[in-house]
Specification:
This protein has helices at about 20-30, 40-50, 65-75, 90-100, 130-135, 145-150, 180-190, 205-215, 235-250, 270-285, 305-310, 355-365, 375-385, and strands at about 35-40, 60, 90, 105, 115-125, 155-165, 195-200, 220-225, 255-260, 290, 320-325, 330, 335-340, 350. The chain is of the alpha/beta class. β7 (about 195-200), α8 and β8 form a beta-alpha-beta unit. It binds zinc ion (ZN).
Length: about 400
């Protein structure tokens, strides 16, 4: 039941690649004798999401046909919308060591027990320049996503995965809900419509406002912070999580809002990543998805609303999940409330707006930004983290 509630997963059914019971023992034995490849942190995050169905309908790392189809058309070869290739990069050395094997054992680190077995369906050359230009809209190696592509191996190993266990985490254990678990929870709460909010930043009043605007028209809110690899200058996930907890404690209705974590690594691919984030949230059971300004962007690579406009490149029912597009919002002294350029007729002079640089400077000096900008509870956590050397 939960599998289809409140919205069907992308492609129709929720994938689960975990092998259990007696089959797991046989798989473990098989893996012990296979050539081994260590998976990097980013690809391990993808493996976790493949395993738990967050990337349904994918059942493993994609092959060359899907790879080029995604880059060229934002669709899999079977015609299903898909914006970002999910590949396992390997080096020439890995392939030589594998020596024509039909399967590989994947490890989280050298010498570790295998976490999964990849049934190799093909090995292909990664077209890094093409991938950078189509996914990231730039070949500039200063872009963190492009840099990761260029640093990866030149080849990709494709195939179905049989997964022995999910990667182990010692943080946010209470928040690591799989798509099957969030779906079951939505069903238990009777939410028929749920809006998902992707974030890799602390939540200030502007984010709170758009979440609550969205919540006014649906049954429930899933705040879904990304906790995989990010840039080193982003606020660390444990600090962000303390902010969400404080905010939920003081300002969110518990029967209408919940937090789970999204294990993905950030790609900073802007528009294409917004599509990918939306599809993954559909798999977690969200019916709606908030797309703000410069979603998943970095630097000045993308236009402010490019990540909203890209949703128009798909047929209305192709993605299934409904994007909710928001402009930047602020407190307006004349409106006496949160507003956006869409709802407030007043000019800059009455609006409380601060640049990210200014906010960081205030926090670093132990100064709370105005409460119209940040909840004091959130400001204090950030001040503490910045001054404690934690960030
Ligand atoms: Zn106003």
């Amino acid at each position: 039941m939960s599998d289809q509630y409140p919205i069907a997963p992308h492609g129709g059914s929720l994938v689960n690649l975990l092998v259990g019971g007696p089959d797991a023992d046989a798989l473990r034995e098989e893996a012990a004798n296979l050539p081994k490849v260590v998976v990097n942190e980013r690809e391990l995050a993808d493996l976790e999401m493949l395993a738990n169905g967050a990337l349904s309908p994918l059942t493993g790392f994609i092959g060359e046909g899907d790879y080029h189809s995604i880059l060229d058309t934002m669709h899999l070869e079977n015609g299903l919308a898909w914006a970002i290739p999910v590949v396992l990069s390997v080096t020439d050395g890995d392939v030589k060591r594998a020596g024509g094997a039909h399967a590989l054992a994947l490890l989280t680190s050298e010498g570790a027990d295998p976490i999964a077995v990849l049934r190799i369906s093909g090995i292909f050359k990664r077209d890094k320049t093409k991938e950078a230009r189509s996914v990231y809209r730039t070949a500039d190696e200063a872009h963190p996503g492009v840099k990761a592509v260029y640093e990866a191996g030149d080849l990709c190993a494709a195939g179905r995965l049989d997964v022995l266990r999910l990667p182990e985490h010692d943080d946010f254990v209470n928040y690591r809900l799989t798509p099957a678990q969030t779906r079951a929870e939505f069903e238990r709460r009777g939410w028929r419509t749920v809006v998902g909010f992707q974030t890799r930043n602390p939540i200030h009043r502007a984010h709170e406002y758009i979440q609550k605007c969205a919540l006014e028209i649906v049954d429930g809110l899933l705040v879904h912070p990304l906790v995989g690899a990010t840039k080193s200058d982003d606020v660390p996930p444990d600090v962000r999580m303390r902010c969400y907890e404080a905010l939920f404690e003081g300002y969110y209705p518990k029967d209408r809002a919940m937090v789970g974590v999204f294990p993905a690594a950030m790609r900073y691919a802007g528009p294409r990543e917004a599509i990918w984030h939306a599809i993954a949230r559909k798999n977690y059971g969200c019916t709606h998805f908030i797309v703000g300004r410069d979603h998943a962007g970095v630097g000045t690579y993308y236009g402010t609303y490019d990540a909203q406009a890209i949703f128009d490149e798909f047929e209305p029912n192709e993605l299934g999940i409904t994007p909710l597009r928001f402009e930047h919002s602020f407190w307006c002294n004349a409106c006496e409330g949160m507003a956006s350029p869409k709802t407030c007729p007043h000019g800059e002079a009455t609006r409380v707006s601060l640049s990210g640089t200014k906010v960081r400077e205030m926090l670093r000096n132990g100064e709370r930004p105005p409460q119209e900008f940040s909840r004091p509870e959130v400001a204090d956590i950030l001040i503490d983290a910045l001054r404690g050397g934690g960030a």
